[in-house]
Amino acid sequence: MSLLEVNDLAFSFGDKLVFEHVSFTVDPGQVFCLVGPNGCGKTTLEHCVLMHLKPQRGDIRVNGKSLSEYSERELAGEVAYVPQTHVRSFPYRTIDVVAMGRARKQRFLDARADHEQYALEIMDQLGIDHLAEKEYTTLSGGELQMVLLARALVQESKMLVLDEPVAHLDVRRTQDILLLLAKLAKSRGLAILLSTHDFNHPLMLEDEGIDIQMGLMEGGRMSEIGVPTQILSSGCLNDIYGIESQIVEIPGEPVHHFLATWSNGRKDCVDNAKR
After folding, report:
1. Of the chain's two ends, which shows fewer C-beta atoms within 10 Å, N or C?
2. Bond into 28 cis (ω within 30)
3. pTM summary value
4. Which domains does the chain show, CATH number per domain?
């Protein structure tokens, strides 16, 4: 059974339609990657899944049960969230921030030692246990993103929802986090829903041999769903973005794929600049 089922979903802000007729599923151990232009509704769709927003039409089911049947605490047992941005308002110890992910299992002020110990174990698995006693307001962007991921994992939920989890990170940290997500899907059987602007991210995950689907959103709908290499080989980016693209295979074991893109008007721009 799919862990997440989205059926004929539609959402509008007032009279402004964001998307409609959106349907897809995410199974345990599978990554579903939302991609598309700015403003196409990727983040809005994720917030519908998280019950932060209520769609005008359609149904979302988590573990076979409609969202309308869940309380917020119950849903936290099924779905954990890693936001794109996070305001660091108080210099908590980093381990305290991670342990806050156990809130659904305890009263807020009843922070028991076993929750802190479990938080430390998760941080150790992610290779960030050395940050435990640091004030989290002093962390770098990459360190903070790993801490927010650790906080989501200590919830022990069956699904992760991540909104552009590697935005603004350097190449090395981006690869570290994407490879970690692939490992979590494989080893823990987590269902993962993530959004990104970079088409090379789903290609990297596909190269890791995990079960991955990519949903291409544009024009208020999800126009394509499928394996990243198949979708990105179809020339659809020319229709959506007005750019040419080609998947390049990089030899090795295993073979890696990289999407090269260039603007249709690039030659004209270069010629004009030379004048």
Report:
1. C
2. no
3. 0.89
4. 4-78+157-228 (3.40.50.300)
